[in-house]
Amino acid sequence: METSQRTVLVTGGAGYIGSHTCKALASAGYLPVVYDNLLHGHEWAVKWGPLERGDIRDGSRLAEVFTTYKPVSVLHFAGLAYVGQSVLDPGRYYEFNVAGSLALAQAMREHGAKRIVFSSTCATYGSPEKLPIGEETPQRPINPYGASKLMVERILADFRRAHGICSTALRYFNAAGADIGGELGEDHDPETHLIPLVLGAASGRRPPLAVFGTDYDTPDGTCIRDYIHVSDLAAAHVLALRALEHGTALDAYNLGTGQGYSVREVIDATARVTGLDIPFSACPRRPGDPAVLVSDATRAHQELGWWPSLSELDTIIRSAWAWHQRGSSPRG
Ligand code: UFG
């Protein structure tokens, strides 16, 4: 197979954000080749190109896939993303996220792949003193998950300087919602994210929501986050890839709405959207949760021309509710 500008290797493409991005890539005329070990990803979520099963740490399997498809560009989602788990088992996070990304970067170098968009996170900023959070905010992660993502940002910056592999890191705030067409949605095991848990509490499919902390220094005492629709994140990846192709991409972009909502506000919005009561109880704080995380995404607006269009809170919840109501079938 000839080197193709349209073929994009998507590691972790069977996962939540990766699969939504494959749909966006296909709409933009790319062929997403998914590389995924299906540990957290789902075979049913791979719909827009081939699936190659493989572990991100497996250099020889990566070499096979690079040899077969000759991708010039890579979108790198593969990795572990549970903050709490990363505190309990940091080695696993450094192994998958750091060693895995290094194996990928080496494979890119050996096979002449030139561009990579990396899934990074607002967790690289830790608990910043100043809000909203711009890209120049000092990166001081407070858990191994955030630290592992920051290490990969550094590795990619070094590979850019030494080997000319162009890269950009997209630092997501709180990804949420589901494909508006109903083809994809969030399906984590275990599920730890707020919106699916609130929806589960609403439908009775999950227990009442445990609100982690009601004594934060916020207007209603609960944590504030910046929720961004997963399809808006997907669109940003296509724009970042184009910027890399044109040689105009910067090293990192924050992706959020700049608008924060408290846990209480998410509960209220969910009650409004679903028309259901949300059973919940006040619980102690979850270790490692910063009180407020809100983005300044001006750089992504100005440099990438990216503007969220689906990230109004009710729209996010409505799309996630539609997905939730479909249950586990026909996904599994
Ligand atoms: N929350 C609850 N109860 C729950 C689950 C969550 O009150 O059962 C609260 C959390 O305390 C937090 C908010 O809801 O205040 C959002 O929690 P999520 O677990 O949905 O998201 P996080 O903000 O913890 O995590 C997200 C991403 C991570 C990323 C992190 C950066 O999922 O990948 O932001 O802080 F690292």
Q: Could you give the distance between the termini?
A: 32 Å
User: Total helix count?
Assistant: 10
Oligomer: single chain
Overall structural class, as computed from helix and strand content, comes to alpha/beta
Proper CATH architecture of the domain at 4-176 and 228-255: 3-Layer(aba) Sandwich
Instruction: Write down the CATH topology of the domain at 4-176 and 228-255.
Output: Rossmann fold
Bound molecules: uridine-5'-diphosphate-4-deoxy-4-fluoro-alpha-D-galactose
Characterize the largest beta sheet: strand count, sense, and whether it forms a barrel: 7 strands, parallel
CATH class call of the domain at 4-176 and 228-255: Alpha Beta
- Which overall shape is indicated by the principal axes computed on the Cα atoms? globular
The largest beta-sheet arranges its strands as 3-2-1-4-5-6-11
CATH superfamily of the domain at 4-176 and 228-255: NAD(P)-binding Rossmann-like Domain
Radius of gyration: 19 Å
